[in-house]
Amino acid sequence: MPLLTVRHRTTYAYREKVMLAPHRLMLRPREGRELKLLTHDLSTAPNAEIIWSTDVLGNAVATASFERLSNCLTIESVAEVEVTAPSWPIYNITTGSAGYPFRYSAEEWTDLGALTAPAHVDRAGRLHAWAQSFVAGPSTDTLSLLQDLNAGVFSGISYQSREDEGTQAPLETLDRTWGSCRDLAVLFIEAARCLGFGARLVSGYMWNGERSVGSTDRGSTHAWAEVYLPGAGWVPFDPTNCKMGGQNLIPVATGRNIGQIMPVMGSFVGASDAFFSMQVDVEVTSGSALGGRNLEPTSSICSARTGEPFVGLRS
């Protein structure tokens, strides 16, 4: 049962003092059967009143409200988690859903709702045709189909870190043949929805202590996908690394689209050119945070005005 510590610090700098509007923070790891949250501390400088709530998807959301002007803002989250996801997961999919195509029950279909509906325009049906190309025949194994789709995104799209906001449209990612972790996750999810699956995005962190995905970093913010399969529940797929299952993944939030799960969202009131820089430092380490070691910078300064990008790991 690996004990991991996640340190995540976001620093905004301004050329002059500004009034900070309330910031929406999604930084608390999401507990589940494969992840136990042991401790979590969230702090800001300048100090803020922090109010916690739960959104419609069950994510923990902190709203930070500030009272005074400042020329900088630091948001720091430190969490200790215990991760128990197996290296080779076995999913007990119901007999009626083990083969594709299958039908969700009426209740499942109602509850999944918008998570089954493609969110991007595909007038010529190009994305639908691309997704259908992974279907082996009139009756194919459901899990094998999704693994083939996952591998198809991994092999067909080159990973490229991208620090600007937002995501590429799925067809744009297919045409460019490159994208960030969030772009690859969006492409996978949209293709899965074209095939009739309920799918959602996940934001969080990746633990790479054994360099198992070929990155020089031990940890990073990350984005991946989950598909709902009757009997198995929500099954993680990470097309950035061609992985299935929750090993090395620390989920924070789930959503229908990437805008719902950004780690930090906020704004300020001030001159139009007041914004100077944003720096994101993330470290995932083995063991407890009780040693009090300082966080060392692991990422470069970027120039996003609001929101925080995802930086993925890929071999």
Automatic annotation (TrEMBL):
It holds the Pfam family Transglut_core. SMART domains: TGc (SM00460). SUPFAM superfamilies: Cysteine proteinases. Residues 173-241 form the Transglutaminase-like domain. Coiled coil: none annotated. Transmembrane segments: none annotated. InterPro entries: Bac_transglu_N (IPR013589), Papain-like_cys_pep_sf (IPR038765), Transglutaminase-like (IPR002931). This is Transglutaminase family protein. It comes from Rhizobium deserti.
